[in-house]
User: Which sequence fits this backbone?
């Protein structure tokens, strides 16, 4: 997988949330969590696996909502950050952090109701194999996001330290068909790239986001969105 050494570094893990989800990045965090909750609701009592859980943004949110969640990640440093967030925290469901490889998930077939993978597919060397493995351990639902090829994301993609894979809608449709998944819903968002929001204060990011939502809400510009949130069902 791209950038594994970079991603697993201790200093990257310590600064990960602050660099990506503070300042204008708070708007990204809010929208991504909204997309996950909308796809999975009702969350309570669902058995969920999050692949590439990082510092636990989604795992903690889902556990607070009453789900039984396993967060899996290749980075011990990221997992440690996630475990620190659970200290002195009242969680309605259950939460376990586990180190593991997304290409060889350490679970039996049909083990989870839902499997999610956010901020993952742009790093995947073999997206079909990873999606097939996600499907294997899910008995109901797969939720993931992709960064889109024909969008502003491509402008700065080359500068990312760990590289990034961009997808067209047709490529994802083929992946779903090959892995025997049925698309339930897809949402497109963020005409402006994530990197711009992370680089500016929230006071400036908020009006830009409002403009982005106003223009992006028109179906004619959906194909220019930077990110898509996919909700698929196991057949």
Assistant:
């Amino acid at each position: 997988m791209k950038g594994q050494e970079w991603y697993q570094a201790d200093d990257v893990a310590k600064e990960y949330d602050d660099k990506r989800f503070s300042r204008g990045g708070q708007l990204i965090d809010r929208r991504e969590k909204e997309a996950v909750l909308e796809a999975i609701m009702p969350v309570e009592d669902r058995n969920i696996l999050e692949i590439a859980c990082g510092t636990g943004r989604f795992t903690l949110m889902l556990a607070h909502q009453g789900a039984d969640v396993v967060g899996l990640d290749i980075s011990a440093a990221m997992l440690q950050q996630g475990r620190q967030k659970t200290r002195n925290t009242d969680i309605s469901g259950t939460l376990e952090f586990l180190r593991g490889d997304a290409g060889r998930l350490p679970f039996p077939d049909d083990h989870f109701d839902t499997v999610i993978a956010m901020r993952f597919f742009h790093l995947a060397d073999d997206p079909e194999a990873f999606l097939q493995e996600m499907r294997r351990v899910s008995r109901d639902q797969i939720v993931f996001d992709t960064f889109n090829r024909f969008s502003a994301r491509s402008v700065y993609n080359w500068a990312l330290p760990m590289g990034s894979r961009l997808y067209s809608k047709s490529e994802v449709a083929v992946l779903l068909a090959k892995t025997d998944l049925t698309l339930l819903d897809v949402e497109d968002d963020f005409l402006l790239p994530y990197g711009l929001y992370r680089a500016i204060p929230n006071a400036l990011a908020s009006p830009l986001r409002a403009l982005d939502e106003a223009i992006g809400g028109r179906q004619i510009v959906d194909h220019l969105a930077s990110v898509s949130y996919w909700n698929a069902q196991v057949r």
In short: The longest helix spans residues 25-40.
